[in-house]
Amino acid sequence: MTTPADVPDVRDPEQPGRLLTIERDALIPLLRDRAGEDFALPVAACPGWTVRDVLAHCSAALTRVAEGRFEEGVFWPEANDRDIAERADWSDARVVDELERGMGAAGPAIAGAGGRLDGLALGEWVHAGDVRDALGEPGAYGGAGLPDALALLARITRERGHVPLHADLDDLDEPLRLGESGGERTPGRFIGDGPTLVRLYAGRPVDGAPAFELAGVEVKELNIYG
């Protein structure tokens, strides 16, 4: 990949939707080829949830965004559990159908939200990686969407004033700058591949991931969902 690593903080409103549609085109055909028992597999990154539960959560969230339905308490754990329960009697195919529509339809709404929902798009992409990981499929937290995911992650961590980190990635030609300390803290350094960096920032297990180096920052400090 040759995408510039030190991306500017100017928001690309189409980027979150583009990330979702790229993942849609890769994930949905994979899901349609899976047997029913695969949807009952546990997802290590989401304790207590199966593949089907993660897909139902994602499809519900993206549908809500596309339709502009933001009730009080939306996206809290209780609401997520309720969304999953409401789809308990759906067929697996119906859940996948809703997910496919949501991954395409949510983009314009996210683009028009001024950045408030950009993190949600990144989170849904990460969940797609969770599903790939649970199914033993290659490309978890990577694939064609990785350049947009890394650029989005870098911007979000800088906007949030997250711990500073310079990442030397196998996937990019130049170091990626994440987080922002205003000079108060020397940036940490990561050496490894993009999917492993995503795992660390998303609080996902790195067991079995390619070897990496991390210095000047603790793993727990990187987790944007912690």
Question: What layout of secondary structure does this protein have?
Answer:
Blueprint (H helix, E strand, L loop, with lengths): L14 H18 L18 H17 L9 H10 L5 H20 L6 H18 L10 H14 L5 E5 L6 E3 L9 E5 L1 H9 L10 E3 L3 H4 L4
Parallel strand pairs: 1-3
Antiparallel strand pairs: 1-2, 3-4
Helix pairs in contact: 1-4, 1-5, 1-6, 2-3, 2-4, 2-5, 5-6
Explain the overall architecture.
The structure is a single chain. The chain has 8 helices and 4 strands; from the N terminus they run ααααααβββαβα. The chain is α+β, with helices and mostly antiparallel strands and 226 residues long. It has 2 domains: 14-135, no CATH class; 145-221, Nonspecific Lipid-transfer Protein, Chain A (2-Layer Sandwich), CATH 3.30.1050. It has a 4-stranded mixed beta sheet. The longest helix has 20 residues, at 92-111.
Could you list some keywords that capture this structure?
226 residues; Nonspecific Lipid-transfer Protein, Chain A; four-stranded mixed sheet; 8 helices; DinB/YfiT-like; Mycothiol-dependent maleylpyruvate isomerase metal-binding domain-containing protein; metal ion binding; MDMPI_metal-binding
| Overall pLDDT score | 92
- Largest sheet: spatial strand order: 2-1-3-4
How many β strands by DSSP?
A: 4
Number of helices: 8
How far apart are the termini? Answer: 30 Å
> What is the approximate shape?
globular
Relative helix content: 40-55%
Q: Name the structural class.
A: alpha+beta
Low-pLDDT stretches: 1-7
Number of self-contained structural domains: 2
In angstroms, what is the radius of gyration? 17 Å
